[in-house]
Amino acid sequence: MSIIVRHRVGGWLPRDHRVLQSWLAKKIAQVKADPQPFQPVIQDFQDLIETNAEIYMDFHQMFDQVPTKPPYDQDPTGKPQVRDYMTMLALFNKIITEAPDFEESDYEVGLVGFPINAILDWPMGTPAGLTAFVNDQVNAQFKKMFDVWTAFLTSSDSRYVLTTDTTGWFGPAASAAMPNFTETYVCDPTAQYYGFTSWDNFFTRIFRPGVRPIMFPDDDHVVISACESTVYNIASDIKALDTFWLKGEPYSLNHMLSNDPLAPQFVGGTVYQAFLSATKYHRWHSPVSGIVVKIVLVPGTYYAESPAMGFPDPDPAAPDLSQGFITAVAARSLIFIQADNPSIGLMCFIAVGMAEVSTCEVTVQESQVLKKGDELGMFHFGGSTHCLIFRPGTSITFNPEYPIGADVLLHDPIATVG
Questions:
Q1: Is 239 inside any structural domain?
Q2: Torsion angles phi and psi, residue 366, rounded to 5
Q3: For FRET with 57, which of 107, 285, 354, 398 sits at 20 to 30 Å CA-CA?
Q4: Count of structural domains within the chain
Q5: DSSP label of 195
Q6: 342-384 pLDDT per residue, tens
Q7: Is the pTM of this model over 0.70?
Q8: Nearest to 65 by CA among 285, 319, 311, 235
């Protein structure tokens, strides 16, 4: 049964679900053929599940609540999908020792850029899954697990996927997804691993000088794109509190801004949201000239998805379908900027982590003076989306060249003010 999942935006998971199923079947076969002792962080995860009655119940019910009808019941090998937390943990134990590559299957070569998400694909869509994945203790344990994985992804050992092999990041499939790579990014194609020192170094690569010129650098009435991204939503008259978990996923400002004292200034304002793709640039740049007023790091969830997305959709779990929802619950960074243009005044940039490591690293400091286009920070491996929030008094007009679903280059003019 072929399922083409069209809402898997950003290329973090293959659109043909058979590729994902094939990848998962291989991983399950590998951990069963060669079972390994749990690393300490995975043993801690098991202990958390088994010593907390509520969490223990959730991690049983999330698998029991997955439908037993196709396509949820079996993968292409005829074996059940992941149906218990011990198999889940065994797969986690393996994944955190690996770097992502392109999956080669009988159907196509596709990127499985959300390997943990792939393991949790079905249970994320269940009521028990939602309860578990908004639990602070569970998310703290995911964070500990991701810290271990990050140590590997930032080491030279993670470079083994930076090859020209079929599944490598400079192979045919990856090259088709990232055309003109050597002309676009700083690298050395004559050097081993193209000169990258780790997987993370490759993921956070930078543009060559002149590749993304800053548009209208001296015109403070023009707001530029903060990320290389695709427009997800533009909404106005945002409420302080709203039902962000329901269909339509309205923005809930106080939750997005973590109840910060500056939040009331934005009630009734405008939100621009755009998501980043797996094979693109992952750093953030200032959309305006101004001064950094405040930086807030918000711990949050990694795998909570909007309950409005649930079954029987053939793939309810793709976190990119819950992008409005995760602005209120996911791990994120808030950067408040006082724009030089008084018609803009205070605005906020939000970097939102979306599954996996998704570390939001801020590289600016409070009171720092910014020129339009200056780097603000970056996402380390993981899916991601971002928002720009403007106050209700800001008369902003968005560029009609970039409607919902349009790809926007870094530094492109996305709006004018005044």
A1: yes
A2: -60, 140
A3: 354
A4: 3
A5: G
A6: 999 999 999 998 776 567 899 999 999 999 999 999 998 766 8
A7: yes
A8: 311
